[in-house]
Amino acid sequence: MGVKKVKKFQILGLKKQVDLITKAIIKNKQIELLKKEKYEQEFKEYKTENPYKDYFSQISDIFSKLKLESNQAELDLIETTKLDLNQLDNFINPIQNKLDKLARISKKIDQEEKRLQNLKKHIYLMRNMDVQLEDLKNLSYITLIFGSLTKERYSRLIENVTNLPILVLEVNSNEERVWFFTFAKKEYEEKAIDILKSANFERIELPDRVTEQPRSILKQADHRLEKIKIIREQIKLEYDKLKHRYQVEIKNYYQKLLFLNKIKEIDNHYYDESNYFFMVSGWISEENEVEFKQKIADKYPEVIYTSQKINDIDAENPPTIIENPGWVKGFSALVKLYGLPKYGELDPSLFFAVTYILLFGIMFGDLGQGFIFALLGYLIINQKISFIKEKSIGQVLMLLGGSSMLFGIFYGSVFSLESIIPALVIKPMDNIMSWLGFTILIGIVLLIIAMFFNLFNSFKNKDYQQAFFAESGLSGLIFYLFILASLAVYAIKGSLLLPLSLTILISVILLAIIFLKEPLGNLVETGSFKIEQSLGNFLLESGFEIFDIVLNYFSNTLSFLRVGAFTLNHFGLSMAVILLINMVSNHAGSLFILVLGNLIIMVLEGVVVGIQILRLEFFEIFSKFYSGTGREFNPIKLN
């Protein structure tokens, strides 16, 4: 659980075994290969011809056009074999020719359908005319112009052309526009067009090859469109025939070509070569290495496999492999919003999941509303809500809903009503100051845990400056605990834990250690008390940093007041819903307000609470121990 340990490996073998080793790497599914930028002596970048690339492109195209589906389980069982490319040609070419022919036919009928639809669009406007369009188009002395105007502009046009040699004939209209023919003498054509343009006339060119009456043309167009539908069905039938006849062979070739093409791509991208040998390196988890190393030794005894543990994390930049329980995975996706754990860094996913669930329940405690969240999660997990595919979302909702239900029982709240069940523990609205103090205590505990996490990370990575002298290290933790203890004793007894002068002295000493963390860190790690920058810059930067650190201790702690504030806000909204219900006299209205009010609270406040918890986690807790600068593990896969 958490970040897995990885090792860097190197494989050296004879060049004739390259494809076999690549095959083993692909089938392992848990190996990341390294692309070399610098080559060992006598080694250079491996380059080999890939005879499968074009064939894979062709078979993929056929695969896609016939809408076939690949079975990943079948891909895992493929053995690397050489294909008879001549036989493959003889198989692919007839199918491709048939598909190309069907594509050409489809393109032609698409164009014809578009033409017919365009024709119908224009001719439909003239459907009430009992005249041959050919007669109108072939007038010897008259120019025919067809188009439309808005009703207002059409009325103005009619008023303005009464004394001009222009005839306007309306053919159709709706609430906004009028479609009409304009007849003008040939010598008056340009003047007529200018007049129409000035009115924002939209001209429509009459389609070619229209000679009959509009109703007859529309009837013929509909008839041809019906024939196009039949042709489309025939084309679909031809595709189905090809799919039924060849799908087994196509899938077989597709799977083999996918595998063989991937092998060649990996060879050319990751391998080095000399005259007789190949070399490849990469990352593998320690637990996976045992089985992989044994397989290589058993199958390819001539191949040399070596591996090493990571000596310098920053220089090697190893990938991060995370393994968490299934119920944590949905929360891991939220952690990734902040960043991936750096190799050697503590994975906060489990801690994040537990605290997120706890804080959500505290801030959104309601038995009924929590049940709805849990029910939604259950439906998503069981795929009853089809538009949400990720089951992890359902798991998150179920856990948050369960926490909300638990705290709803503690608070005695069911669908915003507090009269149905008694409060098992506390009613926050009746104990506001105690409740706010309790949420501050929760924040203090979480911040202390975060500091311990930082100590764990720092000692693990031998970063002694961060471990001993940083604000989240040992010095900062002691300072924070000392101040908290002093304030707690003062609140209880009315006096400080230690005399004021001693309290100030201890506080100053601890802050001075944090102030001097750079030279003190260098002293521990290198034996030299030195500052990397000028003394003036060091004093200025460290002084502002100390001020910021003290302020952060205070603000980080008080930030958890928002946990209590949102709890009270939730009850405040619930009280508003109850108040509205009491203002309505009939039962139906009261029920409607109850349902609507709860929906609004669940949607709006649920989202806000979720975001606020995320803010607390990221800015108040993660900032104490988590860098999130890791690099994701990218294993070699088929697709």
TrEMBL record:
Major place of residence: membrane
Subcellular location: Membrane
Single GO biological process annotation from the record: vacuolar acidification
GO cellular component entries: proton-transporting V-type ATPase, V0 domain; vacuolar proton-transporting V-type ATPase complex
Superkingdom of origin: Bacteria
Single Gene Ontology MF annotation: proton-transporting ATPase activity, rotational mechanism
Transmembrane segments: 350-381, 393-412, 432-456, 468-490, 496-516, 563-585, 591-614
Keywords: Coiled coil, Ion transport, Membrane, Transmembrane, Transmembrane helix, Transport
Membrane topology: Multi-pass membrane protein
Keyword field contains Cell division: no
Coiled-coil boundaries: 95-122, 218-245
Record family assignment: Belongs to the V-ATPase 116 kDa subunit family.
Protein name: V/A-type H+-transporting ATPase subunit I
